[in-house]
Amino acid sequence: MPDRWNNILPYLNEFRSHLSPSFPELEIEAAYNYDQTNDDYKVALKNGVFHRAGLYLLFDKAKQLCYVGKTISFNKRVWQHARAKLMPEMHFIDLIPFDEPVFYFAWALEHLLIVRLQPPRNKQGRADEIAISDAVSIYRSLPRRAGS
Question: Is residue 146 part of a domain?
Fold first, then answer.
């Protein structure tokens, strides 16, 4: 198990604890690192590694989590990032596959990981956390009616 997963596994286990025991197992899988050759990638592609849905985790060379995303096709979405050179520091790509019938749970896990781990390239979850904090502050500052 790569040490870059150490910060993620507790949250994956926490998420799993809220699900039914019959829910399919969730595991992180090492999918690609930029030290691999094109032949390594072709073998992984042929074996179906990238033809699944779920979360993808992008790490830099120092093994720091940079981005958490979800997709119905790892192959298409992850390489969109690479081709656009949106994340030049990206070095490792890991996957948390979800079976198609339960893919909608990927949204919840993605949000949990973004809010808890604050990957620097994720913006949406970070803004949600601020928005929630602001909403709570506003709510607490509202005048209260007698008896409420």
Answer: no
